[in-house]
Amino acid sequence: MVGRIGRPHGVRGEVTVEVRTDDPDRRFTPGAVLATEPAERGPLTVESVKWHSGTLLLRIEGVADRQSADELRNTMLVVEVADLPELDDDSFYDHQLVGLEVRLADGAVVGTVSGVRHDAAELLVVRRPGTHDLLVPFVTAIVPTVDVAAGHLVITPPEGLLEL
């Protein structure tokens, strides 16, 4: 996911976008065609792009009024995994992390990564059988090892994190 369409902006069909990519200038350019989730809302072609008070505004081809723009609210803008650029060794895409088994340093299994939240800090959502989900800050001090090929990551949780 590279973005999520938010509320309409104005009456001429512009939409706000919650940006979820490190390179919005590459992903959101006039003429770019974006796949969507749900798929039946797209694909969408970007007609124009502008920033307004730190918010990305897009005009989408065929969307000419506020009502049409509002119908796109909460549409996820996605790209194919094959179209993603390679990342540094210590950076990961969300889809690479979701599904990884979460272990402690001694090998004990804590759960499975079920999602990644992008709040003030990045948090791994860890599903634990028989109890509530765990939110783990995705920082090297707490997640020192990520082995995508082996299908797991290791956490060294601070005292009390597993009890929350």
Keywords:
8% helix, six-stranded mixed β-sheet, 164 residues
List the helices and strands and how they pair.
Elements: E1 3-9, E2 14-19, H1 24-27, E3 33-37, E4 44-52, E5 55-60, H2 66-70, E6 76-78, H3 94-97, E7 101-104, E8 109-118, E9 122-127, E10 134-137, E11 145-147, E12 152-155
Parallel strand pairs: 7-12
Antiparallel strand pairs: 1-2, 1-6, 2-5, 3-4, 3-6, 4-5, 7-8, 8-9, 9-10, 11-12
Written description of the protein model:
With 164 residues, the chain is mainly beta. The chain is built from 3 helices and 12 strands; from the N terminus they run ββαβββαβαββββββ. It has helices spanning 24-27, 66-70, 94-97, and strands spanning 3-9, 14-19, 33-37, 44-52, 55-60, 76-78, 101-104, 109-118, 122-127, 134-137, 145-147, 152-155. Strand 7 and strand 8 (109-118) form a beta hairpin. The mean pLDDT is 87.
